Amino acid sequence: MIASSRQLLLLMTFAFWASLLTIPDAAGNECIACHRNPDFFAQYPKLNEYYQEWRDSPHARAEVTCDNCHGGRPRATSASKAHSGVLSMSDTKSTLHFQRQPKTCGRCHSDVREEFVQSKHYAALSGQRAAPTCTTCHPAMSQRPDFRLIVLNACRNCHGEGNSEDLPLVTADAESLFHQLNIVEGLLGWTRIHYESRGWPGDSRSRVADIEARYQKTLNWVHQFHLQETVAETEVILGELREFFETARREFESQADAGGS
C-alpha cells in the first residue's frame, strides 16, 4: 500500500515529537531538582523558566546539564554550595563569557569550533573585541537556530546598511543561504522516508548518504562565514536532491496510477 504525501508528512512530524519525549531527567543532579521544583515558581520564576527551556533543548536530550557549562557542584544540596564557583557571564573568567564560549562549546562541538576559529569573527574575539560568539546565533536552550531571526537580529546589527565600520553588506547572502539549507534539510528528510518505505534502488542509499555528509560538512563550513562560497556549494547539493525528489515523485505517481487502474 502506497502512503500519501500527507501520511509521509504526518510520519515525519510524529518522529520529531517522539524525539522530544525521550528527554532524560539526569537523576541525582540537584541543579535540575531545584530548578524544576514548582514550590519556587512564585518567588523565583526564572528558576523554573530555565528548567523548562533546558528540558526542551538538544542539550537535555544529550544529557548535558547546567554544571557542564556553568560549573558549580550538582550534587550539593544547598544553593550556596551548588553555585560555588559559578561566575556571571559578564566575568571574563566565566567559561560562558562571550570570548571564552568557543573553547567551552568546542569541548563537545569540536568540528564546528575548527571552522569558527578560521573566521574573522573569531579573530575579532581573540583581539578582545565585541564580536559574534556561539550564543549570538545559537541560544543554548533553543531547540534549533531560527535562521531568519539570526539574519534579522545578528547579521544586520553589524552588516546592515550604513553600519559604522563599513562592514560588507552580507545579509542578503546569509538569508539566501539559510533558506536553501532549510530546503535541503526538508528534501533530505522526505527522500530518506520515501526510500526507507519502498526500498533503495541501485546506488541511491550511498548517494543520499554522501549528500547527507556533504550537507553536514556545509553546515559546519557556515561557521567560517564565507557566505558566497557556501551558497554555491549548497546550490549543488540542492540540485542533486531535487533530482532525487523528482524521481521519487514520478515513481510515486506512476505506482499510484497503476494501483488505481
What does this structure look like?
Helices cover 62% and strands 0% of the residues. The chain has 261 residues and is an all-alpha fold. The N terminus is likely disordered.
Task: Itemize the secondary structure elements and their pairings.
Layout: H1 5-20, H2 30-35, H3 45-55, H4 58-61, H5 66-70, H6 79-82, H7 101-106, H8 110-116, H9 120-126, H10 134-137, H11 147-159, H12 171-198, H13 204-221, H14 227-260
Helix pairs in contact: 11-12, 12-13, 12-14, 13-14
Characteristics of this structure?
0% strand; 14 helices; single chain; mainly alpha; 261 residues
Counting DSSP H or I runs of 4 or more residues, the number of helices is: 14
The biggest beta sheet is recorded as:
none
Q: Which term fits the overall shape? A: globular
Order of helices and strands: HHHHHHHHHHHHHH
Q: Rg from C-alpha positions?
A: 22 Å
Name the beta content range: under 5%
Query: In terms of per-residue confidence, which ranges show pLDDT below 50 for 5 or more consecutive residues?
Result: 1-5, 11-24
* Average pLDDT: 82
Q: How many runs of DSSP E, i.e. beta strands?
A: 0
Which structural class should the secondary elements be placed in?
mainly alpha
End-to-end separation in angstroms reads 14 Å
Helix content: 55-70%
